[in-house]
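Fold this sequence, please.
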Amino acid sequence: MSDLIQTVDSPQEICCAARRLREIAQRDEITPQAVLEVFERWAGALGADGLHAVPGLAFLRLWLRRNSLEPVLLRELGPDSLRGGWREDGRARLRAFPLGVVGHWPAGNVEVQPILSLTCGLLGGNACLVRVPGALVELTRQIMEKLQEVDRIGRLTERIVMVTFDHSRTDLQEAMARAVDGAMIWGGAEAVSQVRALPFPYWSRVSVFGPRISVALMDADAWGDRIERPSWCRRIARDVWQFEQQACSSPQALFLERHPECDPGEFVEELGRAFQEENRVHARQQMHPALTSAICLARASWLLNDAANHALFPESPDWTILQGTGPEIPKPTQGRTLNVLVVDDLLDVISRFDGTLQTLGLGVKDAQREAILAPAAARRGVDRVVKLGSMHNFSSPWDGADLIRPMVRLVRHVRSQN
């Protein structure tokens, strides 16, 4: 893996790379335990200076830790999966084997997604062919250099080929699809549809993680508690800041159940202080002019559309809170822009979920009330219901599906001596 990310210009280059990867995957077996050992060292190396400002890097380091991934492996592949062994299943035994070469099509708006995606393929013992979006090439190279430093004998790096090419090169997209035994596809509706339409072999396993949005709910007792309020606000700010609010799990709106005695404006003021502090600690390094324009337009439109609406924001476009009422889910602005909406009934909000909601962040004091809200949201298409402050905990299942299990073959062996 001397050239960490290869710029390719012909289908032959992709076919040759996939052929080499398949030979390695079939020749050299690697257990999840061995993969975890390298991941652990990789996580430590990513603490080096110069990478701290990368959105999502703190989360990536946490994801690569053994204590994050072991539970995922045990749940998806069984108790003997770490050592790559067989497990008894009645008169037979079962064992996970890799598919071979897994192709990865990460989205271009989440900086660490090429890495997150390939880790799922590697944990299944596969080799990985990754298309890196052009905007993420330099950042991905920096992260992969740290893997190269800690994986000196090449246990993992020999199983990875990263390529980059323009998304309009249909011939290269098709060559990559034909060359893989499995695929993990991430991104917006148009990008996902284009990749899914590629000529994958009929035996390929395909996992799709398409465009979703996320919101948060708080009951009156939770946000109305002035003692606990600062803690809740810090949690919300942390969820908004991670991944620059571009991940599917980023909250775009927060719905507050109306409180008979507490002013939601006071809560918004406290939330503004949490936003200001989060912005101080994790200041944005750069901002696309189009996003700046979108934020300014969202602020102006919100205040002009309804005289009862309020907004809280600094002079810069660093963050924005748009306060109003009503159960309708607003169109996301992103860029650390959160709609805070007061409603009479949280179930009225959930009744408007239409399958596009991925994660629901909750701040609910009453356990019995949460026991009603969570299944109601699940029935309306929500895949993850979590406590506020942990909306980005990348774990399995994700989007209602396993992450590693689809990229392995679970082989059943019935002994001939039985």
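The radius of gyration is 23 Å. Residues 31 and 186 are 26 Å apart (CA to CA).
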